Amino acid sequence: MNAKHTLPCTEAGEIIWDKALIERHALSGPRYTSYPTAPQFQKDFQESQILEALARSNRKGNNLSLYFHIPFCNTICYYCACNKIVTGDRSRAEIYLNKLYREIELKSAYLDKKRKVSQLHWGGGTPTYLNAQQICELMAVTRQHFNLVEEDKGEFSIEVHPGNIEDDLLKVLREQGFNRLSMGVQDFDPRTQKAVNRFNSFEQVEALTTQARDLKFHSVSMDLIYGLPFQTPQSMLQTLEKIVALSPDRISLFNYAHLPHLFKTQKQIDDNTLPSSEEKLEMFQQAIAYLCEADYLFIGMDHFAKQSDDLAVVQARGELKRNFQGYSTHGDCDLIAFGVSGISAIDNIYVQNCKQLDTYYAAIDSQHFPAESGISLNEDDRLRQHVINQLICHFKLEFTDIEKHFNIHFQHYFQAELRALKALEADGLIEISETGIKVSPQGRLLVRRVCMLFDAYLSRQPEIRYSQII
Ligand SMILES: C[S@@+](CC[C@H](N)C(=O)[O-])C[C@H]1O[C@@H](n2cnc3c(N)ncnc32)[C@H](O)[C@@H]1O
Ligand code: SF4
């Protein structure tokens, strides 16, 4: 592995892979899918706070983004860190859907019916655990209560498991208005697949991709993970070659988060089969180089996209946002989440639904919002949220932009942060000028490290464990 290597592949310019710098700064840290991050959400969040936020949101009248969490899976993948329920008992999905419909009724009653829904996402779990009839029914209930933009103008996406999807279901999804597909692929190597109990062949992924294109899905995205058992830089390259041959519009390459104390099924994975951190870094470096040569842009953190993809287009316009699904092209929408563990972002609040089915069901049965925790952002939170968003999505920020939005003097307000940033500047991660901050080509892979210095909560709770930055 080269100690220093230049990779010409972000919208903002090149990336320099600087191994020594990465090793020095690759701490663990938040992924900033929200700021403040989920550990800051408070348990005593009141229903009245949600109602007030919904009212403010209605007054704003911006478009909506809807998220539906379908937690069920047919089989367990040992590495999985998602909120899922593995069950062969299909009646559980029926019970769940009935509660979901009641949640839709409950929440939509407080939302102005005229507001357009320009984004919708079904995540999980595995949403295609639902059969065709259930899929149609859930979409019908959604359309009954919300004003979904028509004529394929919205961004309606769904996560699918290519090794585990019924024939013809894709056709049903397309007819129901879905136009973006996100497939979990993870890795094609048979030894790795066996070790994590996750099976999808190249042929299955290829067939699904072809079918999606025939059905005129606008975009196909694929998830991969590096750091899984038995993966080597060579085996990873073989998986990448197969992926690039299928030419997905987006690729997510996640760093395997191995936290067996939190995710019990990860105990099925023998630590001795995991690649070393040195090998993981090599895989990541190689993947970035390979994907950039194949004309993908490195959007940030773990996301790659073709230049023609909306993610790249919106980033080039300077309008990319971070949200709970990663990077979002619809950051201007308020996000309303349904289902167990779903997180909503409404006006200035984040609120998370109950993470367990029984508490979620009990709340719905008593006609209450199934909220478990939340946070109301104060002015300082919003300011820092904006700063972190600019850095993580665009690798730069301009002081005047922040000053215009928040009526502060940047250098005065962030005196302490700017002092701390000097150390990162000395190390070459960033450049600070009179007018702003730029993340340098060698700092772009470590942008979370820069964001962490603007996080007002991090130093107060050192006991919270986060995943590795890289
Ligand atoms: C809800 S799943 C995707 C849909 C579907 N259930 C599937 O597996 O194909 C979301 C994605 O999270 C990623 N993921 C799950 N557990 C992970 C972990 N421990 N570390 C990193 N990525 C993980 C996988 O890439 C997975 O595709
Ligand atoms: S990776 Fe997907 S299919 Fe596998 S257990 Fe997790 S949510 Fe279910």
Question: Structural class from helices and strands?
Answer: alpha/beta
Tally of structural domains: 2
Molecular shape: globular
Give the overall pLDDT as a whole number.
94
Number of helices: 16
Assign the CATH class of the largest domain: Alpha Beta
Q: The biggest beta sheet, please? A: 10 strands, mixed
> In percent, how much strand structure appears in the residues?
15-25%
Indicate the percent of residues in helices: 25-40%
The CATH architecture name of the largest domain reads: Alpha-Beta Horseshoe
Stretches with pLDDT under 50, minimum 5 residues: none
End-to-end gap:
16 Å
Radius of gyration: 22 Å
Keyword list:
single chain; 470 residues; alpha/beta; Arc Repressor Mutant, subunit A; pyruvate-formate lyase- activating enzyme; 2 domains; 10-stranded mixed sheet; 16 helices; 23% strand
Folded structure, characterized:
The chain has 2 domains: 4-27 and 383-460, Arc Repressor Mutant, subunit A (Orthogonal Bundle); 38-337, tm_1862 like domain (pyruvate-formate lyase- activating enzyme), CATH 3.80.30.20. The protein has helices spanning 19-25, 47-60, 91-108, 132-145, 169-175, 190-196, 202-214, 233-246, 277-293, 310-316, 357-365, 379-394, 399-406, 410-413, 415-426, 447-452, and strands at 4-10, 13-18, 64-70, 72-73, 85-86, 116-124, 147-148, 155-160, 180-186, 219-226, 250-255, 296-300, 303-306, 321-323, 326-328, 334-338, 343-346, 349-353, 371-376, 396-398, 430-432, 436-439. Helix content is 37%, strand content 23%. The protein has 470 residues and is of the alpha/beta class. The protein contains 16 helices and 22 strands. The strands form 6 sheets. Strands 3, 6, 7, 8, 9, 10, 11, 12, 13 and 16 form a 10-stranded mixed sheet that branches. It has a 3-stranded antiparallel sheet with strand order 17-18-19. Strands 20-22-21 form a 3-stranded antiparallel sheet.
